[in-house]
């Protein structure tokens, strides 16, 4: 990244302690609009903790968080969402019995006047129209809007969940999506589908942090990759400048830190 670009989200010297456990040790990290940054590391390396700090679920023990260059403190996940930063959880949090459109519009329903003239009936048609437009913009082709999401495949459900998160962060700025293992439960084709959507979302200017244990996925979809090892960042470089063996070396600790 050039010095003229302001990161959408930046962490400076972030520490996170759980009692005596130092889960994050002086982490510097940044992601810019339109960029996909992979966050790799072995079990217990600190990836989830870092995502929790970025999503407002945890307050860091020390360090600074900047959103679009402005220093910020998140007191809750909703404060982070209001700042355009949204965590997408593995378990998706979709309402199974409801259709795609209802799921995409959850929490931001369009209301119209009911039979007695009071505002308060969900405008299903307007909601469907908006959902179609938003999916279209992301280049997503899904089953009919009226299909309950419980009838979708794992990959389609993940696509709906990602699209829903994207609609929540794309306001005036393009927002930041934090993805925790979005393909963990998916087969090959479904992973391809989700991978393509991640790329398209970045092409729309969304900044994306992708935590994954799937190295080929990270190599394919990420512009940049950072590796954590026991709470420290040991590598951070453009994907084009690294390879599978190097990354495995940093993940396992066999390779010395770039920053030592
Ligand atoms: N709530 C907690 N209380 C105490 N220690 C914790 C807590 N959450 C995480 N830790 C510790 O912090 C360290 C980092 O854990 P974290 O879950 O962030 O790693 P991770 O890279 O996400 O691992 P995984 O790939 O297994 O999910 C580990 O040593 C873990 O045991």
Briefly say what this structure is.
This protein has helices at residues 47-54, 77-82, 100-104, 124-137, 154-169, 188-203, 215-221, 244-252; strands spanning 9-18, 21-31, 36-40, 62-67, 70-72, 85-88, 111-113, 119-122, 176-180, 207-211, 224-229, 232-238. The chain is α/β, with parallel strands linked by helices.
Largest sheet: 6 strands, mixed
End-to-end span in angstroms?
Answer: 21 Å
CA-based shape: globular
* Series of secondary-structure elements, N-terminal to C-terminal: EEEHEEHEHEEHHEHEHEEH
What is the CATH fold-level name? Rossmann fold
The structure class reads alpha/beta
Total discrete domains: 1
Spatial order of the strands in the main sheet?
Answer: 6-9-10-3-11-12
CATH class: Alpha Beta
Q: Work out the helix count.
A: 8
Report the mean per-residue pLDDT as an integer. Answer: 88
Regions with pLDDT < 50 over 5+ consecutive residues? none
GO molecular function: ATP binding
Protein name: ATP-binding cassette domain-containing protein
Domain ABC transporter: 9-255
Keywords: ATP-binding, Nucleotide-binding
Set down the secondary structure blueprint.
Layout: E1 9-18, E2 21-31, E3 36-40, H1 47-54, E4 62-67, E5 70-72, H2 77-82, E6 85-88, H3 100-104, E7 111-113, E8 119-122, H4 124-137, H5 154-169, E9 176-180, H6 188-203, E10 207-211, H7 215-221, E11 224-229, E12 232-238, H8 244-252
Parallel strand pairs: 3-10, 3-11, 6-9, 9-10
Antiparallel strand pairs: 1-2, 1-4, 4-5, 7-8, 11-12
The chain binds adenosine-5'-triphosphate (ATP).
